[in-house]
């Protein structure tokens, strides 16, 4: 998904809500793990609903198609508290173009979202070396800008939409309540 553009006109890293930061880092770690295992990184979204985390892949023939599929999924997410949209891309730096796994995300009602990523290199044998710390990339569109917070939906409405789809505990490894 190399042809998405996320702008960064600021030198400062804004304060990202804790739940959103957790889901962004979770998505980056999932992507990193797939790449290290040699699997193709298909763009995917993660949604936090109550104490659950849902992951959905968005394969497409173009970056635009993957983006549109992810946007459609997130915009229809009743009761979700945060999301991340993760894909493989690149960033332009003072030192040239760098490969990066990018996670964009947002929370309901916020005007803008955020993009963070793990810069990486690939050696001659195809092995990946990732930066240890996620880097702030810039503001991103927020697919949840027009949504209400999960607390604004009834329990039955959320349960009907999501909890009937849970086969296993996808939230293992992510702290959705900030503890």
Summarize the structure in words:
By secondary structure, the protein is of the alpha+beta class. The chain has one domain. Strands 1, 2, 3, 4, 5, 6 and 7 form a 7-stranded antiparallel beta sheet that branches. A hairpin with a 2-residue loop joins strand 3 and strand 4. It is globular and about 45 Å long.
Map the helices and strands:
Layout: H1 18-36, E1 44-49, E2 52-57, H2 63-75, E3 80-93, E4 96-106, E5 112-122, E6 128-130, E7 135-141, H3 155-161
Antiparallel strand pairs: 1-2, 1-3, 3-4, 4-5, 5-6, 5-7
Helix content: 10-25%
Q: How far apart are the first and last residues' alpha carbons, in Å?
A: 33 Å
Approximate strand percentage? 25-35%
The largest sheet, given as strand count, sense and whether it forms a barrel, is:
7 strands, antiparallel
Count of discrete domains: 1
- SSE succession: HEEHEEEEEH
Rg value? 16 Å
Structural class: alpha+beta
Low-confidence stretches: 164-174
Secondary structure: number of strands: 7
Average residue-wise pLDDT: 84
Q: What characteristic shape results from the CA principal axes?
A: globular
| Number of alpha- plus pi-helical segments | 3
């Amino acid at each position: 998904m190399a042809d998405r553009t996320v702008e960064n006109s600021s030198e400062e890293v804004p304060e990202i809500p804790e739940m959103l930061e957790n889901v962004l880092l979770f998505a980056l770690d999932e992507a990193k793990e797939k790449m290290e295992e040699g699997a193709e990184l298909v763009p995917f979204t993660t949604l936090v609903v109550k104490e659950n985390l849902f992951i959905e892949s968005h394969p497409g023939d173009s970056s635009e198609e993957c983006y549109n599929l992810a946007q459609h999924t997130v915009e229809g997410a009743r009761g979700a508290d945060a999301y991340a949209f993760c894909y493989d891309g690149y960033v332009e730096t003072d030192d040239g173009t760098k490969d990066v796994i990018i996670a964009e995300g947002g929370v309901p009602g916020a005007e803008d979202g955020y993009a963070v990523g793990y810069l990486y290199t690939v050696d001659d044998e195809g092995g990946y070396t990732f930066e240890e710390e996620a880097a702030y990339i810039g503001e991103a569109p927020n697919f949840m800008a027009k949504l209400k917070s999960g607390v604004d939906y009834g329990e039955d409405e959320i349960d009907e939409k999501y909890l009937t789809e849970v086969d296993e505990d996808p939230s293992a490894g992510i702290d959705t309540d900030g503890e």
